[in-house]
Amino acid sequence: MMCDKCKIRPATVHYTQIVNGVKTEMHLCQQCAAEEGLLNTEVFPTFTPFSVQNLLSGLMDFLPGIDEFTKQPLKCSYCGMTYEDFKKIGRLGCSHCYNAFSEELNPLMRRIHGSTEHRGKIPKKAGGKMRVKREIEELKYQLEKAIKEEAYEKAAELRDKIRELEKELGK
Amino acid sequence: MFRYDNDVVLSSRIRLARNIKDIPFPSVMTEEQGQKVIDLVKKAILGSNTILSTQFVEYDMKRLSPIDRQSLVEKHLISPDLSQNTKNGYALIKNDNTVSIMVNEEDHLRIQCILEGLRLNESWDIADKIDDLIEETIDYAYDEKIGYLTSCPTNVGTGIRASVMVHLPALTITGQISNILNSVSKIGIAVRGIYGEGTQALGDIYQISNQITLGQSEREIIENVEGVARQIIFSERKAREDLYNKQKIQIEDRVGRAFGILSHAKVMSTKEYMTLMSDVRLGAVLGILDVEIQKIDKLTTSIQPANLQKIYGMQLDPYNRDIKRAEYVVRQINKKDNL
């Protein structure tokens, strides 16, 4: 069988795509397949996260994505993405979408992560007291490690730092 | 004992997903906005007054050949998605290949740190510091309640993905792997073959990673992944021992045959290499073969299609690649010193 595209080289890559029940088949040579971007699996995509888009759409089907007041489809006023678009591509348009679709996204995030509350790192700028609290937690972790490793000098340093921060927090 | 548990663990990776405040995410942004993101990241790293600024090298997807881009994917320095983004895909990679900052991938920034062996905490410390440095000049998209805002809600919160790449030949041979795959999924950890879920793992290499990014701290997430990794390491070692005790001749035969082909073949596909490599790596760990596992792991990266073509400095069609791959493997595996 010859390559569908160049019609010169033998077809070695056979590709089947089914979109909305319509099946298309392509038979391409190595070179044309590479040009079409169909050869990614040949390499070593160890760190490619598996596509979650389909799973996400499955989880979202029960949510309407309609504005309660206007009865219009939900839309992010910052980037223009609608909730329908998001359901299709599984990716949000911008950070403001989290606000625009919060009622829909909260149950979704709870389903994915089992929680809707961030307990991790806080950027310094967003910081405030919360950040200091987290920093103390982190230092306490380091302190424990230092004690385990019997690095007492470092442990003493960490202890002083923790005290200092706790004082700052108390102000 | 093996350094950093690398009889079982190939590498540990921490990846942080970050976005810049008030710029649309890469899937919808304009080319100009994409360029702005690149400029901001460049300024944050290369323009910083730190030693790091001299250690990073720029990789602009627009300017790289397909082979060069693919080679970065094979070295795990960028994702396949980023390598395809020749519009505004960009990366800053540290000269020792331990850190890469991918720009305009699924999120504006993906900070990644990979270290050999089981060293998630160390990887996190490095990624965390780079994150802090970037944050000095860039305002991240962040929400007090739900944390770092990401293009996909599966990464929101910490934006962290902690993964450990493990070689599990004995658990695969003894069929215990499916039990493990099923049980860990119940605690928000995924174990999958390198070709994605449900597929046979090529070279018996699997990836253990967290699925949950929100509601737990980075340390907790890392501890969970490391805890699961430690149990899997323990089970794999036990399975290796049992297997070798009970089926000494069969295992030695299997390892010997694999080594025989690797050291004498004339034509070899990537897939064949991966299968044989798994047996040879097992043989090296069990002391059946006198081959260093670091050497095998290095070879596994070198013989991937794009890297191989870079080594030979020429474009090769798949058949000629298979010939050169065999030639390269034979030469390296028979060499006594390191690669």
Describe the 3D structure.
The complex is a heterodimer of chains A (171) and B (339). With 171 residues, chain A is mainly α. Chain A folds into three domains: 47 residues, no CATH class; 62 residues, no CATH class; 43 residues. Helix content of chain A is 44%, strand content 8%. Chain A contains seven helices and two strands. Chain A is flat, with a radius of gyration of 26 Å. Chain B has an eight-stranded antiparallel beta sheet with strand order 2-3-4-5-1-8-10-9. In chain B, helix 1 crosses helix 4. Chain B is an alpha+beta fold. Chain B is built from twelve helices and ten strands. In chain B, strand 6 and strand 7 form a beta hairpin. At the A-B interface, helix 1, helix 5 and helix 6 of A face helix 2, helix 3, helix 4, strand 6 and strand 7 of B.
Entry keywords:
heterodimer, A: 171 residues, mainly alpha, two-stranded antiparallel sheet, flat, B: 339 residues, alpha+beta, two-stranded antiparallel ribbon, 12 helices, UVR domain-containing protein (chain A), cadmium ion binding (chain A), copper ion binding (chain A), cobalt ion binding (chain A), YacH (chain A)
Give me a quick take on this structure.
Chain A: InterPro entries: UVR_dom, UVR_dom_sf, YacH. The complex is a heterodimer of chains A (171) and B (339). With 171 residues, chain A is mainly alpha-helical.
Chain-wise SSE layout:
The complex is a heterodimer of chains A (171) and B (339).
Chain A (H helix, E strand, L loop, with lengths): L12 E7 L2 E7 L1 H6 L17 H8 L22 H7 L7 H4 L1 H12 L15 H20 L3 H19 L1
Helix pairs in contact in A: 6-7
Chain B lengths: L8 E10 L12 H15 L10 E5 L5 H9 L5 H5 L5 E5 L4 E5 L5 E8 L3 H18 L4 E2 L3 E2 L11 E8 L1 H5 L3 H8 L4 E5 L11 E6 L7 H29 L1 H15 L7 H16 L7 H10 L2 H8 L5 H17 L5
Antiparallel strand pairs in B: 1-5, 1-8, 2-3, 3-4, 4-5, 6-7, 8-10, 9-10
Helix pairs in contact in B: 1-4, 2-11, 7-8, 8-9, 9-10, 11-12
